[in-house]
Amino acid sequence: MTLPIASLDAGLFFEREDSFFGQAFVQTLEPRAYYAYIPYRDQRALPNFDSALDDYNFAQLFTENRYLGYDRIGDANQLTLAATSRFLNASTGAEHLRIAVGQRFYFSDQQVTLNETPRSASSSDLLVGAEGRLSDVWSVVGLMQYNLDSGNTERFNFGGRYTPAPGRVVNATYSYTRDLVDPAGGSSILKQFDLSTQWPIAGSWSVLARWNYSLADSKTLEAVAGVEYNGDCWALRLVGQRLTTSTETTSTSVYAQIELNGLARFGTNPLELLRRTVPGYQKLNESAGSVQERGGDFNDF
User: Is the pTM of this model over 0.85?
Assistant: First the structure.
């Protein structure tokens, strides 16, 4: 089966000088238009190994296929309109604030489906996002998905991060989704808060922790606790994880690792777990001039 895909991406960039509270800034305005066309092909007879519906966010607004993987290619005749405004430090170019709004418009009905109800609206929900650095140590991020037809907020995420120094970070986020669809069937409301930290406690010891709690279910979804010791040329990490795997079951894992700088690591590796659960995590046994190994930056909207 042959399936052609066509897309056109266009944008403009405007900027002006401004000042707030005595600080000089460069403000940008970046409108963007993205058109995608994929003709309909009946794919019901084709097996699906790993395709799934992609999350709806700003990155997904500018992609052709609404599905992850290539076992399903969604039909499309749609236009995305979005605009972003940034406030940049006039001296250094550092970004202090970013605000974006975007929406997708459909010119034909949806025909290809994958465990979801076919779209009936002529436009998508409105996305509004903001991300900013309030100071050298504080940063915040927020995202709202709003249904203009029903007047409901479908999703709302807000988070803050405090990073006074390398190896010291505190994260707090709140997530709300009004109608979370389960691929196995059914839907539920998602209300969660997530707290995580990496913080020195005594000498060369630091504590590592993460608590992800569901307000809708009144239960802990994931808990991580551990310690890390920096011996300059070596490091010790002891981490425990308790993860809710289903309504009635949980799993517990324990990680223990000794790392000899530049030589080898022994034991079960907790670094991927720490990068995922403690955004901003940094290995303590790295020199100031080396490349920092830390969790991903605060999630873009």
Answer: no
